[in-house]
Design a protein that fits this description.
four-stranded antiparallel β-sheet; alpha+beta; 13 strands; 9 helices; single chain; Pdz3 Domain; five-stranded antiparallel β-sheet
Length: about 325
Amino acid sequence: MTYLRGVNVNLFTYDYDQTWMAFFMDADLRIYSRYGSRDAASADAHNSAEGLLHTMKRVLEVHKEESANEQPAPMLPKALVPAEMPGLSALGYGGSCVRCHMVHEAKIYQKRKEGKLELADMWLYPLPDNIGMQIDPKVGNVVRAVTPNSFAAKAGLKEGDHVHRANGTRILTIADIQFVLSSLEPKSKLTLEVQRGSKLLKAEMELEGDWRRWDVSWRKSIRLLSNRWSQLPRSLKAIPAEERTKLGIKDGDLGLRLLNNVAEAQKAGLQKDDVLVAFDGKRSVIYRQAHLYMYLEHKSGDKMEVTYVRDGKEATATLIVP
């Protein structure tokens, strides 16, 4: 499907900003698995023909096993098509083809309008790496490595473990793990059913803190919405390497020029051609598209400290996030 008009988005729930996604289902619309993941580095960082083929074979094995036993049809969620989402028409997408990212835009727009938007709404579908599980991209439920001192390490996971279920959901792919993680609150319990050799084990994690945070600046929905909320994000542009060197800005650190006199910036005392070098005291942030930092780390109305360079001198300003 190349657009979502008429599609039940309560059934087909996934990361709507992705380039490609596959659902494996039976005739009763029972979902066996999902395939399709990405990160800020690449749209196909976790996808491959080999990984997809492996998943297809495993799904057929699961289907054969489960269809041998009669099971009641699954309870399907109430149908919701994009046209019924109030945020979609408010964004002017009512008569369009409804691309996938528009669904995410509509959800965020409506929550913000109702004053219910939380930062966690931006950090959707975190990768298993966030809790310390590095998963084999070709065999999507095998632990390739465990990050020291992570939630996964503290739960006793080891390289080579096969993750069969997470909070009761079957796991065949990285996308299956992301689906479970995205449903969890920042403070949550995650129980994994794991096979290690011939042993079946349980690994329990008490998740807390900002483990959901990851670089989601690649999301088209967030980029487009930020442009609607303010001219400020699109008025910031990375300065060239020569100027970075002249200003003593290290590789990887912030260096964004304010190209226009934007109202929100002017209220904070910022001027056209100022070079922003830190947000909230941070000279380096996790987001590749650093101009989106304000919306990924703050809610509308928050105060954000901005450090800038003007005429060779550093100063700070307090910006009210639009």
